[in-house]
Amino acid sequence: MSTDDHSETQVHGLRILIDRELCVGFGDCVDVAPEAFRLDEADIAVFVAPETVDRVRLLAACDACPVDAITVRDAEGHQIVP
Question: What is the value of pTM for the model shown?
Fold first, then answer.
Protein backbone atom coordinates (compact mmCIF):
# COMPACT_ATOMS: atom_id res chain seq x y z
CA MET A 1 0.00 0.00 0.00
CA SER A 2 1.26 3.45 -0.80
CA THR A 3 -0.35 6.86 -0.34
CA ASP A 4 1.00 10.37 -0.48
CA ASP A 5 1.91 10.39 3.22
CA HIS A 6 2.64 6.71 3.94
CA SER A 7 4.26 3.70 2.35
CA GLU A 8 3.64 0.23 3.74
CA THR A 9 4.85 -3.32 3.15
CA GLN A 10 4.60 -6.71 4.83
CA VAL A 11 7.69 -8.92 5.01
CA HIS A 12 9.14 -11.51 7.42
CA GLY A 13 5.91 -11.46 9.44
CA LEU A 14 6.29 -7.71 9.95
CA ARG A 15 4.13 -4.80 8.84
CA ILE A 16 6.42 -1.86 8.10
CA LEU A 17 5.13 1.67 7.62
CA ILE A 18 7.14 4.69 6.48
CA ASP A 19 5.54 7.99 7.45
CA ARG A 20 6.59 10.23 4.59
CA GLU A 21 5.59 13.35 6.54
CA LEU A 22 7.98 12.49 9.39
CA CYS A 23 10.91 11.33 7.23
CA VAL A 24 13.50 14.05 6.77
CA GLY A 25 15.97 12.04 4.72
CA PHE A 26 18.81 11.32 7.14
CA GLY A 27 19.21 7.98 5.33
CA ASP A 28 20.17 5.91 8.36
CA CYS A 29 17.82 3.14 7.18
CA VAL A 30 19.63 3.16 3.82
CA ASP A 31 23.03 3.01 5.53
CA VAL A 32 22.01 -0.13 7.46
CA ALA A 33 20.08 -1.89 4.68
CA PRO A 34 20.53 -0.33 1.22
CA GLU A 35 18.88 -3.36 -0.36
CA ALA A 36 15.68 -2.57 1.56
CA PHE A 37 15.51 1.24 1.44
CA ARG A 38 16.58 4.17 -0.69
CA LEU A 39 15.88 7.88 -0.67
CA ASP A 40 13.63 9.06 -3.49
CA GLU A 41 13.96 12.29 -5.48
CA ALA A 42 12.49 14.22 -2.51
CA ASP A 43 15.04 12.61 -0.13
CA ILE A 44 12.29 10.58 1.56
CA ALA A 45 12.78 6.89 2.41
CA VAL A 46 11.03 4.36 0.18
CA PHE A 47 11.12 0.58 -0.02
CA VAL A 48 13.35 -1.17 -2.55
CA ALA A 49 13.44 -4.89 -1.74
CA PRO A 50 13.02 -5.38 2.03
CA GLU A 51 12.36 -9.10 1.53
CA THR A 52 16.02 -9.55 0.49
CA VAL A 53 17.30 -8.46 3.91
CA ASP A 54 17.23 -10.77 6.92
CA ARG A 55 14.75 -9.89 9.65
CA VAL A 56 17.36 -8.80 12.23
CA ARG A 57 19.07 -6.33 9.90
CA LEU A 58 15.73 -5.09 8.58
CA LEU A 59 14.59 -4.34 12.13
CA ALA A 60 17.91 -2.61 12.83
CA ALA A 61 17.47 -0.44 9.72
CA CYS A 62 13.95 0.52 10.77
CA ASP A 63 15.08 1.25 14.32
CA ALA A 64 17.96 3.42 13.04
CA CYS A 65 15.59 6.21 12.01
CA PRO A 66 16.42 9.18 14.26
CA VAL A 67 12.95 10.73 13.83
CA ASP A 68 10.94 7.49 14.24
CA ALA A 69 9.43 7.78 10.76
CA ILE A 70 9.45 3.98 10.38
CA THR A 71 7.01 1.94 12.45
CA VAL A 72 7.12 -1.86 12.63
CA ARG A 73 4.38 -4.11 13.96
CA ASP A 74 4.60 -7.86 14.44
CA ALA A 75 2.07 -10.41 13.16
CA GLU A 76 -0.13 -9.82 16.21
CA GLY A 77 -0.16 -6.07 15.61
CA HIS A 78 2.14 -5.14 18.49
CA GLN A 79 4.42 -2.21 17.74
CA ILE A 80 8.06 -3.32 18.03
CA VAL A 81 9.83 -0.32 16.42
CA PRO A 82 10.27 2.37 17.57
Answer: 0.91
